[in-house]
Amino acid sequence: MSKNKYDINYDKALEYWADIPPTIDGVLGGFGFISDVDINGSQIFLNSLFSDENPPSRIVAVDCGAGIGRITKHLLLPNFQSVDIVEPDEKFTNSIEDFVGGDNMKSKIGTIYKVGLQEFKPEKKYDVFWNQWVLGYLTDEDLTAYLVRCRDSLADNGIIVVKENVTSSGKVEKDEADSSITRSLKQYLKIFKCANLKRIKQCKQTNFPSGIYPVYMFALIPQRNNDVNKNCSIEGKDTCN
Q: Which of these, 90, 128, 235, 84, lies nearest to 172 by C-alpha position?
């Protein structure tokens, strides 16, 4: 099996984002006007997780692929005591504190890791990993390995949240400009299974404009009854049984 079936190039992706301005419109690819609707949908989803029988604590979350800290500021800081950040672009990491603003809010920002997710190795236990519009920059194998590292770094009742575009065609679609892919819903579910993660909640973002990819939110926890399938295939036949 090819380790990079879709020819994802990490250096090309970094070069693309190096030219993007550190603004909401920049990080959202010209769709800055959807930010409020997006945050509202995420807050509703997060509230549903907090109201579950075994909710995550609200101590520490991590914003993975944070950009300028849009999600950190508007979603995670209001809900958690501390938020760590993972973002490889130095221009964005240098902009985060100014974007977040306010000494009270800035004081809740924890460690900023200037590294790509394929290289991120969590150093603590997190209540929530928030991954949004970033996993398409990882190869299937690196994404699976990354999710395993997240899974193993969850606090008690911790949850991995994934919020990503999915294709309507059911096939993987490549964006040559930034060397990213948009996966199908089926492929995401296979990858979650291969990372030994159980999907406990899923919903579709509403009130987005027509003509863009559907966006789904997933809440994932460790599948505790089985060991990770070391021989799992994430293309072709699903061997995670």
A: 235
